[in-house]
Request: fold
Amino acid sequence: MRKCIQGAIAGIGVAFASVSLADTVVIDFEGLDTGGASFSSPLIEDGFVIDPALAPSGPVIVAVAGGNGTNSIIFCGWCVDGSQGVSIYSESGATFGLDSLDVFSGYGFGPEDFAGAGLVTGYLDGGGSVSQSITATVGSETVTFGSGWSNLTSIDIVFATSSSNPYAVVPSVDNITLQAVPVPAAVWLFGSALAGLVGFKRRRAS
Reply:
């Protein structure tokens, strides 16, 4: 019995070691189609939820000039006085890391004064957060995030918007690169096996 339990524990160690291996996921919005209309309900791509709760007028997923010629998520830069944004989190509830994203102004052609100022906030598992400013200007820019952007439960991508925006600046984001941490089924199987073995041993002892 002791050898069985030791074997189960060793198996759990191997399984948990594999949890640390992250898979790179790029949310490029290619698998999503809103028909060029804003969406108000969450969408899912590659196991991640794109939640529009932070966008009062609703973001749009569409092919946008000024990006990489493929689908991007865009926000109405002149629809509201306030902000437009999305939250992104794992459908399974697993933690993840943020590596980079592309940001640009989809239709804007005005001066820097009217660029789309944005903020990315990451919420850490166990509490606390990290944040980094981004700016949507003409021409795509890849923004990278440091080692502190790991073990996240969700991220918010939010842009300041204004109804008086005279240059129709449309903040846009694409190619959000995440490090997803998979939780293998083996963890749960070994955990269940260990619990069963311990319970069996206790029953025998009684």
In short: The two ends are 15 Å apart (CA to CA). DSSP finds two helices and twelve strands in the chain. Confidence is low (pLDDT under 50) at residues 12-19, 185-191.
